[in-house]
Amino acid sequence: MRVYSLQLKNNSNYQKNLDKILHYLKELPKDALIVAPEVCLTDYDYENLDKACEFSEYALEVLLKEVKEQILVLTILRKIDGSVVNQAVVLHKGKVVHAQNKHKLFKLGNEHHYLEAGDGNDILKFSVNGISFGLLICFELRFKELWKRLEGADIILLPSQWGEPRKRHLEILSQALAVMNQCFVVVANSSKETMAKSSAIYSPAGGVTINDFSEAIEAKIDFKEIKFMRRYLRLD
Questions:
Q1: Domains identified in the chain, total number
Q2: What is the mean pLDDT of the chain?
Q3: How far is CA 188 from the centre of its chain?
Q4: 235 has a pLDDT exceeding 80
Q5: What does the DSSP 8-state code read for residue 195?
Q6: Adjacency order of strands within the sheet including 126-128
Q7: What is the pTM of this model?
Q8: How many CA atoms lie less than 13 Å away from 9 in the CB half-sphere?
Q9: Distances in Å between the alpha carbon of 73 and those of 32, 189, 217, 231?
Q10: By C-alpha distance, which of 207, 204, 203, 202 is closest to 231?
Q11: pLDDT per residue over 115-150, tens digit each?
């Protein structure tokens, strides 16, 4: 599987952010897995939450029409039952094949003042094309009990807006998750000035493809590596 981690710098113009995603959908292989950073379409635009939520719904409709054999992963701000949530959506063949609301809000960034936390019940493995996936949103990477829930997943997806002061934490935890769960981990982090970048694809053996200077980090996943590691180092 060809995997692409997009390392994007959010623009204050929502449409330009959507255009960037649409550009990569056209340019990248038609069967690729593409992971975009957390809230890459609108950023955390707390001063304009209604506008951000409205645009997110519009953008989702546009993307659903464009995504065919590719798998696209991103998070969007959505208004549900009167509250705003940060929801990860996985798009494939014109459908949302998985959705989960951010459960662990980042209080240092005041997310809890503006967003409703998900209950965490949707942090579970899910399957697309016979591949087992798990997903964590940014700060959720720090909670080892969530790693446990995703044991057995082939690929764990991590859309993020992880701050530059904690850059090494993102890299160490992502690599540790890949080694501990014997899976691939795809990190797509923002490249805003205050963000860590560090978008990467980690392998079950601890290998990494990372490039802070690229907007699209590419790797080819060989699922035989997962099988080898799980047979070589049995954890049961």
A1: 1
A2: 96
A3: 6
A4: no
A5: B
A6: 126-128, 131-135, 155-160, 184-189, 200-202, 208-210
A7: 0.96
A8: 8
A9: 11, 12, 15, 30
A10: 204
A11: 999 999 999 999 999 999 999 999 999 999 999 999
Confidence class for position 190, pLDDT limits 50, 70, 90: very high
Quick check: helix, strand or coil at residue 156?
Answer: strand
What the block records as the tokens of 150 is 């995703």
What residues make up the domain containing 153? 2-232
pLDDT at 228: 87
- CA angle (178 as vertex; 174, 183 as ends), nearest 5: 140
d(CA 219, CA 162): 21
CA 177, CA 195: separation in Å to the nearest integer?
21
CA 58/CA 1 separation, integer angstroms: 29
Structure token digits, residue 22: 């649409």
> In the structure encoding, which two tokens stand for residue 188, read together?
């797509």
The strand pair at 71-80 and 83-92 is best described as: antiparallel
pLDDT tens, residue by residue, 29-54: 999 999 999 999 999 999 999 999 99
Q: What is the CATH number of the domain that holds 149?
A: 3.60.110.10
As to burial, measured by CB atoms within 10 angstroms (0-12 exposed, 13-18 middle, 19+ buried), residue 194 is: exposed
